[in-house]
Amino acid sequence: MPKKSQSMIKIDRIDRSILELLQDNGELTNQEVADKVGLSPSPCLRRVRALEKAGIIVKRVTLLDHKKLGLALTAIILIGMDRHTPERFATFEAKVAEYPEVQECYLITGQDADYMLKVVVPDMDQYHHFLLNHITRIQGVSGVHSSFVLRRVIDSSALPLRYLS
Predict the structure, then answer these.
(1) What torsion, rounded to 10 degrees, do the Cα atoms 79, 80, 85, 86 define?
(2) Where are the alpha helices (DSSP H) in 62-123?
(3) How many angstroms separate the CA atoms of 65 and 81, rounded?
(4) 77: closest CA among 133, 138, 143, 124?
(5) Cα angle at 30 between 27 and 33, to 5 degrees?
(6) Which fold has domain 73-148?
């Protein structure tokens, strides 16, 4: 029988409801959350604080409309590395973390690549500049394959909480 991860924390129905509400709208007040989950404000706030302390609620963010801000081009970049060493990977990861254009970075398997990046820039000219002056200059990058998003069919940061017990 597989062991549960030590990082798993027991979440009850009310905690799950709180998380679903906050994922949908992080601007809800404690009073609004409490009303929606059927608690008074004090116990609700204690639960939210406990979820924060446990590291389940990591942070709250404001999502922006990329197109209205002129960031119309989203690229998915597959990166191959010349060597598979911890030092090479650490160098790459530290460098891409410096670039605000990189929204997501994953170390992957199952492709002819080691990393997958999601990058947002205004246009193809800016992408070309970013690729040539930043990504390809990172020590160890041996190959780059770019794909471009035509349309965001699903664009969500919400986790599927239905799997929680």
Answers:
(1) 10
(2) 86-96
(3) 33
(4) 143
(5) 80
(6) Alpha-Beta Plaits (3.30.70)
- Residues 79, 95 contacting (CB under 8 angstroms): no
Alpha-carbon distance values, 159 to 21, 47, 144, 163, 164 (Å): 12, 19, 30, 10, 11
Q: What DSSP element (H or E) covers 136?
A: none
Amino acid at 50: A
Domain ranges of the chain: 13-53, 73-148
Owner of token pair 């799950």? 16
Return the residue matching tokens 């002129």.
Answer: 70
pTM (2 d.p.): 0.85
Overall size of the chain counted in residues: 165
CATH 1.10.10.10 fits 13-53, yes or no: yes
Main-chain phi, psi angles of 23, to 5 degrees: -65, -40
- pLDDT tens-digit series, residues 82-132: 999 999 999 999 999 999 999 999 999 988 999 999 999 999 999 999 999
